[in-house]
Amino acid sequence: MFSYADVEKLRSVRAPEPAVLSLYLPVPLDPAGARGLAAEAGDLMAAASGPDGGGNARVNRADREAVLGALAAHGRDWLGHTVAFFACQEQGLFEAWPLPGLLPPRAVLAARPYVRPLLAAVQRCPDYRAAIIDREHAWVLSVSGDRVETVGRQVDQGPRSPGFGGWYGLQARRVQQRIIQLGRHHYRDAAAILARAAPGEPLVIGGHGDSIAGLLQALPSAAREAFAGSFHADPHTLTDARVRELAAPIVGDWVARRERKLSQEVLGEAPGRLAAVGLPACMAAVNERAVACLLVPDEGVIGGFACGNCGALSADGGGCPDCGRTGRAVPDLLEEMAQRTLDDHGQVTVIRDAPFSVAAKLRFPVTGEEAGR
Ligand SMILES: [Zn+2]
User: Fold this and answer.
1) Which of 44, 164, 186, 300 is surrounded by the fewest CB atoms within 10 Å?
2) How far does the centroid of ligand 1 lie from the alpha carbon of residue 325, in Å?
3) Do residues 253 and 124 make contact, with C-beta atoms less than 8 angstroms apart?
């Protein structure tokens, strides 16, 4: 799977002309459905939307052939994925990345790679930690895409039998206390391993019910905030693949909850303060470089204009608010806003079923006059 670092590397590619091809091609799971892929890719590239939003942009022949060649060679490996191709021969760029799930097909020709669908895919498959636990054992795993790495392991011998065998004369109540104490140590030690392993990442716990509860209780509050959810399983029969399978929907729900929470936070903020909602307010905030986190919808594009002189974005090309020049058309203002937010070291979060056309958390308030233009 791909990380934000990969996206940044890709975003560093810039051509002087709109010559970078971005092609998102969903490959059906059914091999029979994959047969027409080359034709579909060809059609999409022939109809690629160009820098002015028009649909007849000319894809470089070498780039087109590189895409079709990669499809012929690897198409079978990509069943059930969406392949994101980025190609620009003159910049030495060719990438073909299989993304999870089937995304809408799209071909764009621009001066830099078109990254909105890619950002959504990276956001929805975050790296995470998984703790697998029972009363005696704990494993801490770090999961990144389909790579699972064991970053910590702990074995606690604990009491071997309820009566502690040879502890002659020890009363049942004291034995019970000893068992509880040993248990606490075990969960505390496991929690300490977890706290050291990538503390910012979401956390999934798998195992027996009482051990999950024991570990949760031992977690420091910061680690508990990252807790995404748990699954019940016998730790001794779990494989890496099964852990990923059981954790995937839990992590997916966690990502969706975060999207909703961010949306609510922005909508809860008084307008004109540290939030902007709607296209005019967000464009003004992007033009002022005030965006800390841009919230863009999953789907749809909004055509618009960018000033040929200073780059300011506007919905109509009637004249730049800053320098009065006529704007050049851009096919997707949401992509432009996302790119500029990332350029300014802000964050971009893609929101499913967004309750707004676009919204933003701001670094500083943008005045009403600016927001209205
Ligand atoms: Zn301007």
Assistant:
1) 300
2) 6
3) no
pLDDT tens figures, 180-222: 555 678 888 888 888 777 777 899 999 998 999 999 999 888 7
Q: What spacing in Å lies between the alpha carbon of 111 and ligand 1's midpoint?
A: 19
Length of the chain: 373
pLDDT of amino acid 161: 44
Least confident among 23-32, 144-153, 155-164: 155-164
Structure tokens at 346: 């802000």
For residue 322, the CA-to-ligand 1 centroid distance in Å is: 5
Beta bridge partners of 348: 294
pLDDT per residue as tens digits for the range 40-81: 999 999 988 877 666 667 899 999 999 999 999 998 899 999
Q: Locate 340 and state its tokens.
A: 């500029």
Give the three-class secondary structure for 366. Answer: coil
Q: What does the angle CA 171 – CA 173 – CA 176 come to, to the nearest 5 degrees?
A: 110
Q: For residues 331 and 319, what is the distance between their CA atoms, to the nearest angstrom?
A: 18
